[in-house]
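User: Please predict the structure of the protein below. I'd like the answer in structure-token form so I can feed it into my own downstream comparison script.

Assistant: Understood. Taking the following sequence of 391 residues as input:
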Amino acid sequence: MNDEDQRGGLEAGTHEAGTDGAGALGTGHREVADAVVENPPTGTLSAERIAAKALEARLLGGERKLRRREVAGGVGLSLLSARKLWRALGFPNFGDDDVAFTERDQAALSTAVGMVRAGMLTEEAAISVTRAIGQMTDRMVVWQIEALVEDMVHEQGLTDAQARKRLVHELPALVDPLEEMLVYSWRRQLNAGVQRLAVRAEAGLQASEEGREGDEDDAPLPLARAVGFADLVSYTSLSRRMNEKTLAKLVQRFENKCAEIISVGGGRLVKTVGDEVLYIAETPAAGAEISLALAEAFTRDEILPEARVAMVWGRILSRLGDIYGPTVNLAARLTTLADPGTVLVDSMTAAALDQDERFVLIPQDVENVRGFGEIQPVTLARGRGKGLVLD
């Protein structure tokens, strides 16, 4: 395989903007850009292009002036190894002659390589961690941009196209506070993750043995968790009757409500896929409280339809920010069996909750569940207590 087959690159910012004079607007870029909007230039660059060039210089830490070989060589790394890290971050390819990188790109590459050279991470671990950063920040940036555009459309009376053009003028004032919030949140989430996935993991494993005594099928999986699914009823038919704006509001309302309830219950929202949310909790009781709160919240909601909810206590494998294993599959299967507004668990999860007066457990008829054979679903209902209290 020749060098051209090993191309890789690191790119951020605006693809269309060039590099000539990228930093010319300096710290006063917003005032200058606003003035340009009122007095459009007569040259080849539009007001948006000028603002985008200034924003790019700020975000990338300077002007693009390095080629990929110069960046890799500057940290004593082969182009192939550099390409692995760049692709893990999700950046597209560049050619040998493309002047596409800044000194900050080189510093970031040096940081990643330095962790491997210092023995802090293996190369495989470094690539995996880098991929996590790339995928999460990519999704986060898309979410933030769409939220800002939507807000400008709503608050300033702009069209979607006008808001997207205006964004390059509004965003510079938000860069520093958003960056501060990102770092703050990452530190908090890292601490919570360490507690959840390491410090309290042993207690969870012991609880799993007690709740699933005699079940050895999923024993090799490392973590014990309550795994739950919540699925909106009739979402497909509703979405067909809604316009894009109304559907977006429905999905956002669903995700926000789920995130709030799961967070208050001490769980973690793993992911949302359209009309369905996957979440986990550290104990069967916490998973049960979250599941009941979700079912009750959507039953009371005046806009959203009811939800089918299911929760299973068992072992899982956590990788790439997602979770895997038979416990996850069984929870998904039970969700399809649940009636709207109700919560189903399996018999083993019911056994783990049986002595808790906060819950009422009602056995149902045995069902033949694909991949699991005969399973007895158990309806989970509210017992004593108020359940989760949402501020």
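That's the full token string. The domain at 220-382 is CATH 3.30.70.1230 (Alpha-Beta Plaits).
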